């Protein structure tokens, strides 16, 4: 089981890192450039810390699934990812929008991006860790 957990954490980490790149650099890049007063300059970004945060989050996501779900598989993983994504997406997108002067489109993208990332992560853990 430990081998499957480690493999799942690695898979989720890679997926989330890749999807974050697509969302934040390709899809939302111009929007970030249009709102420079909200962000650190690129040279001040803490990317090493960001990857540590992604790794910790991936571990917690996988651990919750592995430890607390009796029935494991693709269907369970997808449902877990979808529900996790709704929760984190609402917080990330609309929670941030409620306290920051973000463009509404950015809030929607953060919500949908979180939803997609968590659903993909649920699919990955469901494929790797099965009952």
Describe the protein's topology:
Blueprint (H helix, E strand, L loop, with lengths): L1 H26 L1 H6 L12 H22 L5 H26 L4 H25 L3
Summary, kept brief:
The chain is 80% helix and 0% strand. The chain is built from five helices and no strands.
Helical content (DSSP H or I, runs of 4+): over 70%
Largest sheet: none
* Integer tally of domains: 1
- Strands, count: 0
Question: What low-confidence regions span 5 or more consecutive residues with pLDDT below 50?
Answer: none
Globally, the shape reads: elongated
Element order: H for helix, E for strand: HHHHH
Number of helices: 5
- What would the average pLDDT be, to the nearest integer? 96
Distance between the termini: 11 Å
Structural class: mainly alpha
Q: What percent of residues are in strands? A: under 5%
Oligomer: single chain
Using only C-alpha atoms, the radius of gyration works out to: 16 Å
């Amino acid at each position: 089981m430990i081998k499957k957990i480690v493999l799942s954490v690695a898979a989720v980490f890679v997926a989330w890192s890749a999807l974050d790149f697509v969302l934040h650099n390709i899809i939302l890049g111009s929007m970030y450039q249009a709102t420079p007063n909200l962000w650190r300059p690129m040279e001040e970004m803490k990317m090493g810390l960001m990857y540590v945060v992604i790794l910790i989050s991936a571990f917690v996501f996988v651990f919750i699934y592995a430890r607390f779900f009796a029935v494991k598989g693709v269907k369970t993983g997808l449902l877990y990812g979808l529900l996790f994504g709704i929760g984190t997406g609402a917080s990330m997108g609309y929670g941030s929008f409620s306290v920051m002067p973000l463009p509404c489109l950015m809030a929607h993208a953060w919500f949908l991006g979180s939803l997609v990332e968590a659903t993909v992560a649920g699919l990955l853990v469901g494929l790797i860790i099965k009952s």
